[in-house]
Structures are given as C-alpha cells and as structure tokens.
# Entry
Amino acid sequence: MAAEAAALAKLDGVEKHFGAVRALAGVDLTVAPGECVGLVGHNGAGKSTLMNVLAGVFAPDQGTIQIGGENVTGKYSVVSAQSEGVRCVFQELSLCPNLTVAENTRIMHPSLTGLAWRRKASALIIAKLDEIFPNHGISASSVVGDLSIAQRQMVEIARAFTETDTEARLVILDEPTSSLDEIIAQQLLTYVRKHAATGRSAVLISHLLGEILSTSDRIVVMRDGTVVASRQAGEFDRDALVAAMGHVADDSEEDETKDAAARSEEPIRVSMKRREGEASDFIARRGEIVGLAGLGGQGQTRMLLRIFDASGSSGQDDVDGTVAFIAGDRQTDGIFPLWWISENIAVGSLRERLRRLLIDYGAQDGLARDWRDRLSIQTPDMNNNILSLSGGNQQKALFARALGSKAEIILMDDPMRGVDVGTKREVYAILHQEAAKGRTFLWYTTETDELKHCDHAYVFNNGAIVADLARDELTEERVLQASFQALA
Amino acid sequence: MNRIGFNPRLARALLPALSLAVILGTIFYLQPRTMSYFGLNLLLNLAIPIALATIAQMFIICVNDLDLSIGSYVSFTACIAATLLHDTPLLGLAALIGCVIVYAALGALIHIRNLPAIVVTLGMSFVWMGAAILVLPTPGGEAPTWLSGLMGWDPPYVPFPIIASIVIAVIIHIGLMWSPYGAVLRGVGGNPKAVQRAGWSLLRAKITMYALAGVFGALAGLALVGLTTSADANIALRYTLLSIAGVILGGGEFVGGRVSPIGAVIGAMTLTLAGSFLSFLRLNPDWQIGAQGAILIIVLALRVLINRSEARR
# Structure
C-alpha cells in the first residue's frame, strides 16, 4: 500500500447533496502520482460533481479530502486547488470570450506579472499548444470569442497543462474531446500519456470507452453517486465496462408493440429540408415521438427553434400543425416566477379559454385542477406561487402548459434535466398516451435511456444531422459512434 | 458584404473614430474659423468632464452593471469642489475621498447581496442629488484657483482639451487593456465564473471597478467646476445618459466586458461636438436633443450592420 500513502489526491466517503438529490453517496477515490485515472458512468452518475469537489468548486457535505498527503477537508477551495496544482478543464467552457488567448492564460497564472507579462503568457500558451496540438493555427493575440469551438477547447486544454510557479500536478479533463475531431483528440490522448510519464497525474472523463481503455492506467466506474468498480485498465474490456456501468432500469414492459424498423404511415407533420452536409431531412409524423440525440448542445435546440419558427410561415420547411414548446432551462425560459401555478399552466392556451375577450378564471382553474390530477402535481392549491413547487413539479407544470393547449406538435428541449426518476416515469407514460392520441413529440434529450421512448431519432453533431437511427438502433454506443464517425 | 478588403472587426474598431472625423469635418466645413487653436478649445472644452464621466461609466459597464447615478454624483462632487474644496481644501479632499469609498462600498453591496446595479444606482442618484442641494442650496460657489488655472491652461500648439483627452485615453488604456490585473478585471465581465474558478476574488474586482468609477466621476466634477468656475446641484444631471451613450458609441457593449477606453473618450468627444454641430446647422434648439439622438441611432445602426455582416460570414 505504498502507493496509497503517497497518493496525490485522496477522497474518502465524499457525499454531496443538491436539495433532495443525492449526487454523491460516499465516494472513495485515489489518484497516485504519474497515474491516469479513467472515470466512466452514465449521465447523472455523479462524475462531474465528483470532479468539482476535487477541483475545490463544491465543498463536500461529508467525507475527507487529502491532497499531497495532507488533510485539507474544510479549507479546500478553488484557490488552494490552484496552488496545489490541481487543474480542471470543465465541461462548459471556462474561458473569457472577450479576452485574448494570452490574457486568458494570464488569468490562470497570477504569477504572470511585470511589464513583459503579455509576451511571457503568449510564449507559455503557444509553446504548450505546439506541444499538444502541432499545427493548431491559433495565435496568442486572437480574441477567444472569434475562435471556433474546437479551437477554444484546445486553448482551454493547453492552458490547464501550462506551468509557471505551480506544476500541473493533477489535470482533470471532463469530456475534453467532445468538440474535437478524431485526429486532435488522439493528439490530446497521446499527450496525456506523456504527461503521466513525467510523474504528474490526470483524470480523464469520457463517454468514449475506447479513449478510456487506451489512455488510462486505472478505470473507475461510477453509478448513482457511488464508485462501483475500480480496477487496472488491462482488466477491463469494452463489454466489461458497459456491464459495470449498468443498464439503467430495464422497463421493457413499457415498450409498445410497434414495428421496430419501419416508420409509420401517418401523415407527415414536420418536414425540415436537409442543409448542406447533413445526412438526412428531418421528418416527424402524426403520433410519433422523435428523438434529437447526440452529445449536449450540438444544434438540437437550434433545430427545435427552427421548427418553432417555421410553423405558420411558408418556406421550404413544412410544419403542419400548431406548436408548443417545453423548455429545459426552467428558470430562464420556462416559468413565470411571480405567477400562480394555474396561471403558469393556462398561459399556454390563453386564447382558447377567453370569455368575451377576457380571461375566464373559472375555466383556468378547471384546467389547472384537471392537470394536477393527471400529472399528480404535488400542491395543496393550484393558486399557490409556482416557486412553491419542487423542481420536478415545476417541470410537470410546464408539461401541463404544453399538453393543456391544442398544440399538435410538442417540442421538448431536454425537459427532464434534474428531474427525479419517479416524475420521469409518470411523464413518460403521459407522453405515450398523448402520442397514441395523435400528437407528435420532438424530444431533444441528453439521456440515452430516454431515447428508448422514441420511435426514431436523429443524431446531431456540430449543428447538423449526422445520422438517422431507427428504434432498434437506439443504443448509447450507436449514438456516440454516429456522432463521432461523422467527424472523421 | 463579402468584398475583399472589408474587415468587420477593423470596421467596428474604426467606427467611433470615423464618426468623430465626420462630425468634426462637417463643423470645419460649415464654420472654417473653428479650425484654429481657439476654435477647437471652445468646441472641445466640455469634452473633458464628459470624457471622465464616460470613463467612470465604462468601468461599471465593464463588469456588466450600469450606473444611473453618475450624473448626480458628478454634480455632487462639483458642488464639493466649489464649496468645501475652495474654503477648506483638506476637508474638501476628505469629502471626495469619502465619495470614492461610498462607491467602493456600493460595489461590494451589489456583489455580496446580488442586487441589480441599476436599482441601487438609481436610488443613489437621489441621495447624491439631495446631498448636492445640502452642500450648495443655490447655484454659486467658487472654483479653487488652481483648478480653474489648470482647466484654463493654454499650452503651446495643441489645445488643452485635446491633450487632456489623449492623456486620459492612454492612461486608462494602459491600465485596463495592458496591465496584468486589467485583464482579470475585463475577464470578470466576460465570464465571471471562469475568473472565480481561476482563484480570483470577484468581490475585489467589483470593488476596484466601482472605486475607479468613483475616482473618475469625482475628477469629472472637478474638471467641470474648473471650466465653469461655479457649481449648481443640477449641473451634470444629463451626464448619466451622455456617459452611457459615450461608452456604447465608443464601441463598448452593455454586457460581456467588451469596452474600449480610447473609444469611450472618442465617443464622449463625438457627443460633445454633436451639440455644436447642430448649432452650426442653424437647427432650431427645440429639435437639437432629438437630432442628437438621431446621430446616436445612426452610428449604432451602422455598428449593427457591421456586426451582421460579420455574423453572416
């Protein structure tokens, strides 16, 4: 256990709660010097939360943190993580778009001062970019906002590996290759091995099991906020990893008896013509649940908005029917925070319930009561403020807003984010019911399990449709493969 | 819009200077006598306090806030300059330093309590105005002689307002755009979370920016009194909107930490000249404020066009 004693970072029994949701339920994790740890698990398994704890962003509710053999529980913060040489490339980009590449480097390194700081920062970041990504074509004086997503990702990765007075002792890479093409991703993985060979450590999180297997020394598998396996990489193969990650809730009884491969013969409701470089048109028929799959933020929301805009306007895209939108980001574009629950529901169909041009509050209450029963929204009174509901119930209210209107096409922008499993199941059941009645659902989801509820899915990457998958092809493996094949 | 040689970024950067050149050129054309040392001095005199107030506003806009109290704050500091600073210089200086501390405290309050800066500064605008009336109930007072001496200085060859504008622009440009901490301060406007994760204190950054706004607002008040030699509680009320317009006219954005000190000074000069420009056009004074707004709209519309052409590429 000599390696354990000399661990660079050691987490013991770490727990983290967000409200009622338990994101981490007692996690142990050790990273030895010179080790590259691969971290895998389904969405929501707690990988990102764990890394935020390791990087000092979140303080754990329970458990201890040791860095370099010293117990730092309770006094660990982003600042001390920085000074210990723990760097994190977060999933959402953390560069300042209004600053240049060199200035962003400076923000990471307080020691870059003096009159020549700009020259020093430029030299530092360009040297690292050259080392990791030869022929990157990025200039240190470019403003980050003007770079492409892939270039920004490269800058952010390179920045995490730059060293001034503190070494990059532990670099955490959370889905670093999500917007890089295969060649550049390979350059990064090669560099991570080189980094580990110098006695420094790395944690690599990726959905691409091939990357994890080829790059890691040890692989840690997480499920439902706990570590379920931690073994040397050589002891795993792809199948063993998938088995360890576990299939989430196998509810085959919900599977409707629909023909797996063929699409229904119902009339077409939505037809979006393919754009340059796209694999297929976007077609949705009456009564279908169509998934918009792929990694997060690859143009799915933009497609939903395009469909929303196309309804009622004539053009080459054809949307036949009224449209309702269910927002995924409740707080910014979903709820009206100052309104009652019933008002929040009825606003989606105000015009359908007018009495002599004025709002009919009686009908509004009726609608609200009706949907409270159907979706079992947990509240004593539908005329309470919407914020009195829990997150999941607020989301139900947003479903009620869309379903309570006469809309024939319902657009869903990853609406199940942060909703508990029980609520999800209730909503899935309603979706199937409503689809059977002839409504069309277009469902952007980042959770592959939800694709099981779709009749058909389009995989998006970099703003375009790259694959068109039938129901029986909808596995996580296939979706990821499809998103990355297109890039090569 | 994809002609060879059309570079939207360059066009956007040059737009403020170009607007200033067009207005100045037209004034010279309409009234050739302004093309002289004294002519320029007269035209641009008032640009100094406006430029300083615009710089103050720019610091606030840089961290994604908006200061609606800068006009009454400049009035208040002007009243202090014309009374306390003239009669008891030490007390006056202490009062001005106190003002800067209040600004810094406002920055801390806004950050810690996560309050909307617009609401807090709108409230403060009445506080400053009330305080100004307490200090100087009726228009009057007298500027300290050194101050009116400085503002009335006639350096050889180049008029003072031009020298002052260049000095202000260059100093702020070096401080905010070139200094290592300046990059962090602008980063706070661009992506506060990223700056915080890199281990910087957002509170310290906000306090710094608000304190700087307090300093430059006070300097604007001093410069104004130096020019007018007396003060009035309402002397600079319109500076609030002028300063916001100046920042935006100078190429700044309301959010995202995209500001330009040189642009802000140019924007302030453009707005100052716009008034004279309209007088030279012999426009009925009733229409002047509307016409000033029209100039603003035209320049901003041009910028939107440039941005669009950039987005289309």
